[in-house]
Fold these 3 entries.
Entry 1:
Amino acid sequence: MKNETKRAPKQGDSVLLRLILTVLLPVLALAVSVSFALLCARYGGVRRSLCIELGERSPEAGAFVRGERDDAAYAAAPEPVYHSAGNYRLRVAVNGRTVPVILRVRDTRPPTAEGIETTVPLGRSLKPDKLIRNLRDESVVRVAYETAPDFGTIGDYEAVILLEDASGNKARVVSTVHVRTVNDGIVLEAGDPAPTAEDFLVGSYETVSMTPITEQMLREPGVYPIRVTADGIEAETSLTVRDTVAPTGSGITCIAAPGDTVLPEMLVINVKDETAVETAFLTPPNGNSLEPQTVGVILTDRGGNITTVYSTLVFSNVAPTVVEARDMALTVAELLPEGSYTEADFNMQFIPNKPGLHVLAVDIDGERNLALIDVQDTTPPAIRFRRKQWYLGTPTPADTLAEADDVTDVEIEYVAEPDWTKPEQKATIAATDASGNRSEKTFTLKLIPDAEPPTLYGVRDRSCYLNEPVAYLAEVFAWDDCDGDVAVTVDASAVDLTRLGDYPVTYSAQDKCGNTVTKSAVMRVVAAKVEENYAQSVAEKVLAGILTDDMKLAEQIEAIYDYVFTHVRYVATSDKQDWRSEAVRGLKLGRGDCFTAYAAARLLLEQTDAQILSVQRSGGDTHHYWMLVNIGTGWYHFDACNAWTGKQRCFMWTDAQTKLISGSYWRYDKTQYPAVATVPYNGGK
């Protein structure tokens, strides 16, 4: 045998080995790690599969890449939502490399649903799917009874319903089933119609009998047992009558003799409720007081609902009196029996022209009493025709042709609209007052072509101021029967506002049919003693002290009247050539004659929305000045001069009212002005 000799390692070999183990191997490992990191950085780590729940949307391609990568994409788009469980092969592209992946769609969620409570007729079965609602699952669901009700026996059952989807996921739902021949009862509001036997039955049965339901039961809150026999089966149910609606009623004004017993039901009327109502005082009235008392009356129905109404109670020795509405003052003799008193009088005059209940104070032989006056309006309006002729082809309201006398407001209308193309016909006008009283009147209506020109109002000799603009149409307007307001044109070409003097001015108006009216007047150019801006500043200062922002126009003009009437003391001097200067004089010095009062009132009224026309008396040895004012209720006389003995306040008067005081003091040329209202002014209402 050949001897083998092993060479012992040399010292140099050991050094080399140690060098390899300690230096080269770590360097090699580092190189491999860096290469692997560079490779991962380039391609990214791709998951080979993802799992989602059935019905969820497919994930974005980046979901397959480990780390955040926004450059991943599907090679072919997947379905947005997969409706069947399974494994779906997809391809994801990232940094130029396409990798196959698997999307695993799993169904692990059980179905969901809600059980319902229902009542079914005896012997009628229901499929289990009729006892659930809002069934949700991503696959087909089998619905079956795990515990079914006994539909052939009356009773209450909890049905257990099994839900199982296509993946075998299961859930259970409990529903309540009432098997009945009749329902568990009916709830009615008091006063509702009585239910029939069919209203109680569950399903269609042959009814033999039912407990009678009486009118008393329907108006008395409570629970009433009802027995129904149907198809030979007796069953018990109930009728519940409730009252949730509070009673209604109206308080009244009542007068009782001192010492009389007053019950709460005496102070209310029109009490309505479906059940019986009891009355009681909120606070008992004071039988010793002769002043009007507000008394609360509590209305309580059988359901415990409460309403409180308030009435007026008066203890008096004067019995209530009924009078027909009128414009003449009430007299004591109409209230008290003859011989029952020595001396009696009202504390203030009362005109019973407003229907309703009124409480008046009356002194009887030195003792104060209260009287209840029931003003009733049972008289229909009296129709008067203003005219029975109008214009062809031009409809007009009924109150253009007729008016009515009544103590209350009246609505006037045609019973049937006339034929405005027919020259002659019968027409009927009806008038209905605020109390509902109605009258009718028939007349022959004649329609003619419009051949009448408009009427120009306010055209008169006037003055204006040197080198100041002129409002030529101030206080000037035209009215046509057929067309109403008509535009007015003015020819003032001859007026030279730079020179003092008298100049002609011509006004014209033409209606739609071509009828024309023309009037001329003189415009006198005078030197102004007071500048317009200064006059307006004086007026604004006065108005700031007598008007408030919440005043209506009717209140504004009355405040202006009262101020001028009391502030401008009458003295028989004024400058009648310059109304503006005289207005400032009157407002600042507080004295002047009728022209001063007219000018001061005019300056103040021009700052409001009132329509005004200046008026000068016709005839007589002296002049007199005032205005006509219209605030939308018609034209009325407005004279703030306080020269009259007795201080007659000619504020918004009719012609009849001025004539009642004097037939000549307010005489004027009516042909130059629109017709003044015939109904007394009522404060702008």
Note: The mean pLDDT is 89.
Entry 2:
Amino acid sequence: MTPGGTTTRTEYRTCHLCEATCGLELHLEGRDITLVRGDRDDVFSHGFLCPKGTALKQLEADPDRIRRPLVRRGDTFHEVSWDEAFEEIDAGLAPIRDQYGPDALAIYLGNPSAHNLAGLVYNRALLQAARTRNVYSASTVDQMPKQVSAGLMFGGGLTIPVPDVDRTDYLLMLGANPYASNGSLMTAPDLPGRLRALRARGGKLVVVDPRRTKTAEEADEHLPIRPATDALFLFALVHVLFADDLVDLGDVAAHVSGLEEVRRLAASFSPDAVAPACGIDAAVIRRVAHELVAAPTAAVYGRIGTCTQEFGTLASWLVDVVNVCTGNLDRPGGAMFTRAATSVGSNNAAGRGRGVTFGRRTSRVRGLPEFFGELPVVCLAEEIEAPGDGRVRALVTIAGNPAVSTPNSDQLRRALASLDFMVSLDIYVNETTRHANVILPPEPELARGHYDLALYNLAIRNVANYSPPLLELEPGEVPEWRSMLRLAGVIGGQGAHADVDVLDDLVLSGLVAKAVARPGSNVEGRDPDELLKALATRRGPERILDLMLRTGPYGDGFGADPDGLSLAVLEASPHGIDLGPLQPRIPEVLRTPTGMIELAPEACVADVERLRSVLDRPSARDGGPLVLVGRRDLRSNNSWMHNLQVLVKGKVRCTVHVHPDDAARLGLHDGADTRVRSSSGEIVLPAEVTDAVMPGVVSIPHGWGHDAAGTRMTTAARHAGANSNVLARTDLFDPLSGNAVLSGIPVELAAV
């Protein structure tokens, strides 16, 4: 108790601000956070915490955060009641739906949705109510190539092998900088510490990157590579494995199809043929291939730099081709599959499933195919602007800022301004939501429960950790899950006052019915009413999370295993539960129609000729253009962490990195304003002359450009920076996944 009578307490919670899922120890006085530090007893993070986690206090108290629903009248937002907000939404969306049909509405899901229990549980209900083909997300500016390659090879979009970092002897890392990003599509708290431990036990870390990142500086070896040539480098490794008779599939040999086709494809990508294009010496390529095989265990890992390029899917595919061909897939110390506590449990010993199918619908203007139910975001602006039947006239955004984070951002900003109606669920009036007619805020972070449904599917160790709400809702605050279901009711034609509890019951009933009908489920054949009754004490996302845990691979099966997992068990374990290291899972993890690892998917095979055509592409030193790559910062997460002074203070971070040779040739000076121009636009920002980038390569961080009028992000506006996505083109994307190309963009630089 404080002298003023306020109750003091210590609580524990998982950080939701990046993919690392670190445990927090929070000191509270009443509703106020007085101290944030790492939870030393957390079963996964063991006290590690990056600067973003310590900023939770500032995020919760940010005066620019939206606390009540906002409705725009002219150019001004006004606070209204929740009923008024939904009546406004119904009045705006219903006529559009009735006159133009469901495809006149588009939905965009932002990156924070992956860190949000309510979003992950109820986004599907929202999309089902909308029945629109125009679904977009941050996935197609980030990770879709990896999801597509994993789907083609293993049968599921989240069947992504992750490096068993804690047990590997050799890690080859491409296009990733976990010292800044904490890992991505690889959930691992304190990944820098884990990489140091790898080296301390005699292992080797090799980083392939156009920049000498912090991770590259800490590695045993840094191999600078020309942007967008990762697939060439990886193919050359595969070539050496076959040419030198080093291929050994290990324990997965009986489950691999297409090996000879890969051998045929790799024949023309010898190290000597590839070296001039990628900038890595042929002898080095041969040595790395031999080192991968000679190491007791090894893993190859590629991340955002390998995804956001014109050959993103081929690079993502070849990462796992190398893991398979060196015998390191699905073995301790190699690349392994997580068994998450909420994953679907079934008896699938044969490893067969439906696999993946893309292109079930296409975009109206360019006819680009969908991937995992969503269209490439490079289509969004044209679907709004192009006249004709099926034009997008209304938009719903969920925790997203596409006006900053997607290609040709200036075009999308103009498109957003032309919409007939727009609704946003967000905590800020930002570059995107300033165009909304209605903005609905979520409840405070500490007033909601948290569980990392998505990220624990990609964890380097099997863990489970639930964070209960720490604060009661205050008058006027509404849980985000209720807003999402109420919005689904409006979109589905039930009006502004749809019964949220009835909709929630429908979602749960559907999931229970699937669980009892699933072959091999631990509740197979059970009476659905029995399970519904057992769940009746809860409501909202926690009720559905409890179902998923209890019917998952470690679950109690509603009494079938008294020692099994449930939400009640996690509630009694504030530091989480360690479910053990990753274990071999092939063939049961596979969901391909053949039950095999498809090493040579037809789509990848067909795209190899396109890759072969760039072998002779000139570099900047040979008369080619400068090319742009992004970069990450430990204190930033895309565009949504820039309104916190504690994270943006200090040295200006939104600069263009230029190699000294290029700076001298172009007359650029350190700190001087520099114009960067591409075929789609131009920006001006300070130059930072550094040999941390290769000659011919320039680097700008992603997510800045907070200078738009009409926003309410005071701190971000003072540190506006420049938006690198103005330079990205909507006609430049990876055709196998629809992912935008943000790395390897040709640019010109000039002094201002």
Note: The chain has a mean pLDDT of 95.
Entry 3:
Amino acid sequence: MTETRTAFRTCPLCEAGCGLEISVEIAKKGDRTEERVTRIRGDMNDVFSHGYICPKGSTLKQLHDDPDRLRRPLVKRNGVHVEVSWPEAWDEVAGRLGEIIERHGRESVAAYLGNPGAHNVGALLYNRTFLQGLGSRRRFSASTVDQMPKQVACGYVFGSGATIPVPDLDHTDYLLMLGANPYASNGSLCTAPDFPGRLEAIRARGGRVVVVDPRRSRTAEEADLWVPIRPGADAYFLMSIVQVLFAETLVRLPEHIADLVNGVDDVREAASAFAPEVTSAVTGLEPDLVRRVARELAAAPSAAVYGRIGTTTTEFGTTTSWLVEVVNALTGNLDRRGGAMFTTPAVGSPSTRGKPGVGAGFRIGRGGGKTVVRGYPEVMGEYPVAALAEEITEAGDERIRALVTVAGNPVLSTPHSQQLDAALDALDFMVSVDIYLNETTRHADVILPPPSQLQREHYDVALLSFAVRNVANYSDAVLALDDDQPDEWEILCKLALIAQGLGPDADPSLADEAQIDALVRSAIADPTSPIHGRDADEIRAQLDRHRGPTRQLDFMLQTGPYGAAFGANPNGASIDHLRANPHGVDYGPLQTRLPDALRTKSGRVELAPAELLADVARMHAHLDEFTRRDLVLVGRRHLRSNNSWMHNIDVLVKGKPRCTLHVHPDDAARLGVREGSVARITSRVGSVDAVVEITDGIRPGVVSLPHGWGHGQPGTRLRVAAERAGVNSNVLTDHQAIDPLSGTSVLNGIPVTVVPV
């Protein structure tokens, strides 16, 4: 006997947040009921995505059914991973992790949090629980090979690293994009289902789209203008834009914040030495082109500047991110319709909580924490991942002896990969929370697999904070957990309790109860909270119908900007309200939010933070060094690829090999490489061999390899990925090349040589 039901959920595979309509077949076999997904397509009624779906979204079924996906814990015995029961796995973790903490202290243990956690409500809400239980400051994540410069820059300017403006795509007349390829990535730090369609709509209503990128990406091909900049030179390009705006009297601050902006004269002075003629040798751009873009930005009825990973993973990633906001402000487009605006997320954010318009401000190096070997300071609670390997192997008695990774593959995704690969072998103990036995988790002594994406509830806690429209969409799990399978939040809570010495039988609900209790009591005591002064037992009585992430989400929604406030606003946001609206709830377009969204100490927009102005001297010092570079490497992205962990899905990786070295025809002739031949790419720290693909879609002097490949290492279980292994571009990235303001690695603009093999 079979029947079919339909489930609606948000896709968790990238930042676009598209709605999915999932058909589930229910088969009754005696006393058992089995469910399987039969079809996934776009949800035509989703309030945000309106039916749009990319090739990745339809593969959640294949990901769930992947025979290589781990269903049971693995423990390494005699060098081989073997499947064990959950109690056996927890015994192993408690015994060995507890011994290391007891003998060497908590700072001998480190944690690494991977990119998939940003798309997973369990990890987003309970990684903090795990980290607090671990009690170590040695925390690393994918943020320092991704978006950290943007958070640092916005932290200094607006007061919080989570207060990041996004381009108002649906209303802008002019969009300038740097280092972004949303036709492949669907956008990042800018949640916008069907980002390509929104770009096409800008042009359809008479607007313009300009793309600044060393590659003529698919996005650049569809733009009105491609600006083929030299890699890593975005800060110089933007500083020249600023210089032109001042020199030609084109500066016009938004009227409603003109009296709220500090540092305009300091910015003018900093930019004065960066006229387009001065920076042309660095950017590779004609001065007239730079002046044209500056004038168009200033003349457009509305405009927005948007920079992403191609700008953040450079030597001047934080300075570039700062200058994006400087240009938005100086052209009159900060916090106004069609410009760069702030989201009002339904679950709240640092810019919606506390006293409006003022806060503690932003700083790095809190508590004096630094890495042992090179002394890198703390940034937003973590250290640069480029320093992880040396903290394991070179820190002497203070070295990292145990490591816990959560949903990451840093052996493929972080700098000088061979160095980190070797360092992981030097650990005394390693635990990984992951669905795969991959290039990183093969080093783990214990692997604890969470459920598949279809077996978890979902809410984009982080990503909807950067959405181009104020929306909310909650999804219950589509499929039930397997027998004896703990949810991801339970795994993280149990790790926290074990690290606290409560042993392998500790009940994860203890940590969950402590966390929700702390949230409720903090909100009741906060005069700015909508439940200030309420009875804690009354609030808990309403919350305790749920547990885990659902309970926390209910609390966040009810106390958020549109919240039900536990009865005070009966039609407001809550889990029940979102469940009653499975296609999502639309709270409308972005609204003007300054000055209330500010959390700076001054209560003003700090357009010229001292930390950023100081970095201008470094820009001056690098002018000549940039011009001496002969050949540099950049990365690239493909629509069917999501970092490294989607490469085991055949439907996404089949077809023409994509892990090739893009070379301009002029460079190919100069270097002696031919189409389809193999070339050796060498940097300061390593070499890889890759098949050459000659294309005029990249500027001369630049070559490109995609990120996230290099599969097939011994001890992994990724059959499909191993068949299309590719090469690991991060063998070439230099662990010593770091943006000093954010600790972020330089992954673009790496000096290399290329020779035929």
Note: The two ends are 61 Å apart (CA to CA).
